[in-house]
Amino acid sequence: MRDDSGYGNEGVLVALEQRQQPYLLRLRQTANVQRLVQRQFERLDWSRTDSQGFQAIQDEVRLSGWSQARRVVILRRRLREGIAREAMDDHGQLRLDFADHHILDAARMWEYTVLVTNADYRLESIAQLYRDRCDCENGFDELKNQWGLSGFTTRDLNRSQTTARAGALIYNWWSWYCRAAHPGGRLEAITSRPLLLAAVGKAASHAGQTTLYLTSMHARTDTINQLLINVRAALRHVRSTAEQFKDVDRWGTLLKYVCQRIAPRMDDHPACLTLPATG
User: Residue ranges of the alpha helices (H) in the chain?
Assistant: First the structure.
């Protein structure tokens, strides 16, 4: 369970610990938390800088209101850009001054984040584990702002639930369709819908088979063709599997195929039964 500040209070922590639920929660920058950061500043056993520029260190602390000491992880990152301040010019006009490298090098500034956790994760992986929380929230952002659920309001609970479930189902279908088209990364609805829906379709039947022909109306025809080739490969895999096994779960087969393209399993590769000779 990963949450932002506001959930690191005694009631929430005790409830999670009683359920043996691992958690990773951000703490508010209270006076006690700031003193904790100050005590850790001079330590020399900070972890190596990760890909986002963060270093980590851990300790135990019992904040006011807590019934026991808990493990906390302090993350820090030196600010090297994107710092600005408001100032007034000689004419009283408000302007924004960005700090150049001379100012940033003269006075080092740090960004701190303090997390409380009971998860059995290595210190070096805590920062990325918490950052992944933002990726989880992207789905809710898309549902509200790109699929229109934030604009639907009614006092009728049944209609609200039906609309929410229909939106979630369509969002789920479209997400898997886009992953079949582009296994290497996620495509947001705001770009994928005009990319993959701007086409004219024609169905032609012959010899008991129906073929769907799509003519793209988008300027990025080459990109769309490659995406549709990937989708066709996924559907052909499901059809060939269904022909071999009549009672096969076609939806499950499609999902397994897409997941295999996203993250291939190591045991799918043939194992080396002999060791190569040396010398």
Answer: 10-18, 31-40, 101-106, 123-145, 157-181, 189-197, 221-244, 250-262
* Rounded Cα gap, residues 188 and 190, in angstroms: 5
State the Cα–Cα distance between residues 28 and 166, nearest whole angstrom.
Answer: 37
- For residue 76, what are the β-bridge partners? 55, 112
Structure-token pair, residue 253: 């087969």
Q: Strands of 16-121 (E only): list them.
A: 24-26, 55-61, 70-78, 84-88, 94-98, 110-117
- The two tokens of residue 2 are 């990963």
Q: Which of 194, 195, 190, 193 is nearest to 141 (CA)?
A: 190
Query: Is pLDDT above 50 for 143?
Result: yes
- Vertex 46 angle, CA 40 and 51, to 5°: 125
pLDDT tens digits, one per residue of 73-85: 999 988 776 677 6
Side-chain half-sphere of 118: how many Cα atoms within 13 Å? 17
* Other CB atoms within 10 A of residue 225 CB: 11
Cα angle 72, 140, 25; round to 5: 10
Q: Which residues pair with 201 in a beta bridge?
A: 214
